[in-house]
Amino acid sequence: MQELLSNLLKPKTLNDIVGQKHLVGDNKILNNMVKNNKLFSFILTGKSGSGKNSIANALVNDLNQNYRYFNAVIHSKKDLDIIFEEAKLYKNLILIADEFHRLNKAKQDLFLPYIENNLITIIILTSQNPYFSINPAIRSRCQIFKLEELNENDILDGINKAISHLENISITEEAKKMISKLSNGDLRFAYNLLEVAYYYDEKHNITENLIKEINPESNKFLDKNEDSYYDLLSALQKSIRGSDVDASIYYLALLIERGDIESILRRLIVIAYEDISLANPTMGIKVMAAYQNAITVGLPEARIILSQIVIEMALSVKSNSSYKAIDEALNLIKLKDYGVNPNIKIHTTTYKYPHDYKNNFVNQEYLPTEIKNKKFYIPKTYGFEKNIKSYYDFINELKKNPK
Q1: How far apart are CA 316 and CA 307, in angstroms?
Q2: For a Cys-Cys bond, which of 64, 143, 209, 244 suits 42, CB 3.0-4.6 Å?
Q3: Bridge partners of residue 97, in order along the sequence
Q4: Taking the model in full, what pTM does it have?
Q5: How far is CA 352 from the centre of its chain?
Q6: Residue 68 DSSP SS3
């Protein structure tokens, strides 16, 4: 049986890697590990298809060192115990640990003494944010390298490499570009689609029309990486922000026609917190419920769920005070980090516990002294936020006139 194209194209060295030049380019960190014959524990994080496995395997091949592979999805505790025993035997063993985020915290901790005692040099692969999915004790012993999403030119480079492995192939530039767009940064998807197209046509002639025939939904998705698609998402947000319910439904319909409901839902989550926010704080919960329901039923029924939540969002009272507050704070600390007020540090002796005082409030400084009068949050006076403003005003009055 013919070997899969994606397997044939697995990189054997770092020079074979598509994209990720910030890690594998000349004089970059991973290439320098090979030059210096020195490997240390690190984490590769990035979306599926960005090349985590390829980089890890190419690196150990370049170093010409023994390694073991552990996948948290398919391997068991027994497999892990065997690896640990080998590590003791060899005194140091390279371990590629894939899907590491799927291990619970207790199982992740099993690796710690072996990493700490240099019995294992670990290369962790994860598609999740390592700051949330990996134990701090392990994370602190590893460098974190983030893989960038492959762009269309990276995918085109991969396609051109793949073509050299396919005999008698004829492919148009338009077909290459279409495969690249449809892959959405996933090189494996691009290889698989190219291979299907190659065997779909007896003469191995691959055209744009052939790709459309294989993937009839392609027309809905081709605009996804173009300005026109983001213009639609922007138009939807601006229409909801402007409380124009009919325009909101119109742009929603155009987006639904493209078939990608997850992008719509992600944008609705942003709108709930950026544009509606504290004026109607339950909207975030409602959008998440709509998200779960829409994903569960899928299209075409999901259109009804999307319509209902968009109408409610468009006609909801709006506020951008929380979004403006955090941006104001971020802009300030970019200029200078003032640290923590000594009054509320861990080992302070001057902190006063507000619950011990009348109204659960005591007048004391929380902000650093240099910016003690800085106001980041400016409340609005309508919707639910008027209730927040009422308490905000009450606290400010207590600060002026402590009772």
Answers
A1: 14
A2: 143
A3: 70, 124
A4: 0.58
A5: 40
A6: strand
